[in-house]
Write a structure and sequence with these properties.
Largest sheet: 2 strands, antiparallel
Number of helices: 9
Helix content: over 70%
Radius of gyration: 17 Å
Strand content: under 5%
Number of domains: 1
Distance between the termini: 40 Å
Strand order of the largest sheet: 1-4
Number of strands: 4
C-alpha cells in the first residue's frame, strides 16, 4: 500500500489529471445549491491539498535559503492580512468569513499559504520565460493581479471574505500588486529556483475554477 501511494504521488501526469478532475467536481459542487454549502466547507481542504502537492514536487529540493524565503512569504502574508483586516489601511475595509477555515485574530491561517502558493506558481511560470528580472517581477505580480480581479468577485459568494458596502476598493488591487511584486522580488533577489511540474496545472485549474464560478454562480 505504501509503495502504491508513493507511486501515485510521484506520477505527475496522473496528478495533473487528478487536479483537473478535482476542480471540475468542485465547480459542479459549488454550482449545485444542494451541495454548495458542503463544498464551501471543504474549501480549506482543497487549498491544503493543492499546496501540499505543490510543495511536495518542488525541485531540486529544500535548503536553508529557500525554506527561509518561503517561510517569510507565508508569515508575512498572514501579518499583512491581519493588519489589513483590522485597520483597513492596506486593502480597504473587509472581513473574513468562514470559507478559509481556522483564524487567528480574525485572519485565516490559510491566507498565508494562499500568498505563498500564488507567488510560487506565478514565479515558477515566469522563470520559464527568458526575460529580465525586473520584467519577471512585474509580470509575476500582474499575473497575480489578474487572478485577484476574478477572485474578488467570487470570494464573498464562497464566504471567504466580504467588503464594506460590497465594493472592492481600487487600493486593494494596488496593494495586492505591490505586495506581490515585493514577494517576487525576494524570489529574484535570493535566486530561488521554482521548478515544479505541477505549478501551471494548479494555477490554471484554480483560476478557471474561479472564472466559471464568476460566470455562473
Amino acid at each position: 500500500m505504501k509503495e502504491k501511494i508513493l507511486f501515485m504521488l510521484n506520477d505527475t501526469d496522473g496528478l495533473r489529471r487528478f487536479l483537473i478532475i478535482f476542480y471540475i467536481i468542485g465547480v459542479a459542487g459549488m454550482l449545485l445549491p444542494v451541495t454548495s454549502g458542503l463544498f464551501i466547507f471543504l474549501t480549506p481542504v482543497a487549498l491544503l491539498m493543492s499546496f501540499g502537492l505543490l510543495m511536495m514536487h518542488h525541485q531540486p529540493g529544500y535548503n536553508a535559503k529557500n525554506t527561509a524565503v518561503f517561510s517569510f512569504i507565508f508569515i508575512s502574508g498572514i501579518v499583512v492580512e491581519l493588519i489589513g483586516v483590522h485597520t483597513g489601511l492596506i486593502f480597504g475595509n473587509y472581513i473574513y468569513g468562514k470559507g478559509l477555515g481556522l483564524k487567528i485574530f480574525d485572519t485565516p491561517i490559510l491566507i498565508g499559504m494562499n500568498w505563498l502558493l500564488l507567488i510560487y506558481t506565478t514565479g515558477s511560470i515566469m522563470q520559464k520565460v527568458n526575460i529580465t528580472p525586473v520584467i519577471r517581477i512585474a509580470a509575476g505580480a500582474t499575473m497575480m493581479l489578474i487572478y485577484d480581479l476574478v477572485l474578488e468577485q467570487v470570494a464573498p459568494k464562497m464566504d471567504m471574505w466580504s467588503w464594506e458596502n460590497s465594493e472592492v476598493p481600487v487600493n486593494n488591487y494596488i496593494a495586492w500588486w505591490l505586495i506581490a511584486a515585493f514577494f517576487h522580488s525576494l524570489i529574484v533577489l535570493f535566486g530561488i529556483k521554482l521548478k515544479n511540474p505541477l505549478s501551471i496545472t494548479i494555477l490554471v485549474t484554480q483560476f478557471l475554477f474561479f472564472v466559471v464560478l464568476y460566470l455562473f454562480l
